[in-house]
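Lesson 9: reading folded outputs for more than one chain in a single document. The general rule is that every protein is listed as its sequence immediately followed by its structure tokens, and records are never interleaved. Here is the first one.
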Amino acid sequence: MSSLRGRPCELDRTPSSPLAELDDPRLARAGVQVILKRDDLIHPLLPGNKWRKLKHNLRRASELGHETLLTFGGAYSNHVRAVAAAGDRFGFRTIGVIRGEEHLPLNDVLTFATGRGMRLAYMDRTTYRAKDTAPVIEELRREFGRFHLLPEGGSNELAVRGCAELPGEIGIPFDVVCCPVGTGGTLAGIAAGLGAGQRALGFSVLRGGQFLAGDVARLQIAAYGEASANWTIDHDFHAGGYARRNPELDAFIDDFADRHGMLLDWIYVAKMMWGIFTLAERGTFPAGTTIIAVITGPVATVPRQGGA
């Protein structure tokens, strides 16, 4: 059985990630306060939204007596990396079904995953598009036996409940919580946990991600029986699509690092921050707005070269 059974578990003691206000004259001119919610510091092995998405899923897997976790992802998936780390930490065997063909040597993400004991399997892209269908899942069960299935990106109703705990950790008044959006689980949960008069704003990292609104609503309905009306998604800052970047985004990342000593994850977090700053300078947020920006991915500390 999983090592979660029969012992106190750190899953019951979710740490509260720290808050840090950004001192930036552009925000001051706009009359907007931006406070970072440093979820990148929440857990050494499961940083960002990974801890929140996985904690209730790991508990459920243990309660159902599963010893193996199976999930899906691309070759650079931080979710696959996190599942491997969680399985190693909490006593589950793990299987990562990777989109596309095997490429050797393994990249850093998959090297980490196999180093934590994850078994990798590769699925052609046509089959991968049908990965959530019963025939594909049944074939995986015939190949690997009994397992607890975690969806790509980790977004399901249990992940939503984990992310819904975030607003309750914010011990100061605020108006808006912002987060990047890839699969919708983090936004769905944050919005569900907000109080009256507060709203959530997600920034899609996908080109053509208008379908995400339906995914967020479905996740909220699965978790709580209804979708809330306190969230929106902005689609203007994807920089060309998932895992893509453009000169504007790169310039923002470099400037942010110079000003604040933080090198932002360009796949998710930088796109959100770029969006927040652009909208603030456009006057989209009323003066006096306090924004919580959730740092869901890795951040590197770099020497500051200029003043804020």
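And here is the second record, again sequence then tokens.
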Amino acid sequence: MKRPVIGVTTSKRSGWRIFPLVAFNVWLAGGRAVRWVAGREADVSSVDGIIIGGGDDISPDLYKGEVVASARLDPARDKLEHDLVLDAMAQDKPVLGICRGSQMINVALGGTLYQDAYSEFIDSRKVKTILPKKTVVPTPTSNLTSIVGAEPMRVNSLHTQAVHDLGEGLRVSARDLGGMVQAIERVRDPFAIGVQWHPEHLFYARRQRALFAALVKAARVRELDESQVTASVAEA
């Protein structure tokens, strides 16, 4: 069986070092990754699923928030990823959001963000490291829990922004010990999960690899369903 193709968005500036790690995780899960950056063609119809990767902050212009002077923004990437999320929803293709990508799923579906999340959640432990030093708790009965299990897990953390108001059709699927949202998911198909941490750096952890496996599985199921429909039409 051929490997589902997963489009992966990255920063032009740092994507050269991040994409190989994401691609490695996608390969371990049974897929094949292609890199997308702003300014180059990125067509949802050409892939079986997408990953919206991590990176710079999302412009508050997208959700009528306040501008923070210290934020590093990339308007071209914002537009690309905003459109890709909406296209994926329209084409019924699965999406995994990583850190910034989780926030973009929320914003694209009408949600808002905290620009400085740790000033709002003073009991949340502020760490910036790729090492698993932050505890998050999956929400019972969530899709995330069915993928990674219900037990609290240690993850990494590099973010300053976080989900505030949820976008349409989304629910919270994990929080940290201070109550800050750490994962969101779509309540109906297509599959869409966003995590605030960076599972690509935690490929040695079974529960983190499971996130990529779930995306690839959803992409493969959709591809098989589409092939069956095409075959049925051809036979008719």
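What the second record shows: The domain at 5-235 is CATH 3.40.50.880 (Rossmann fold).
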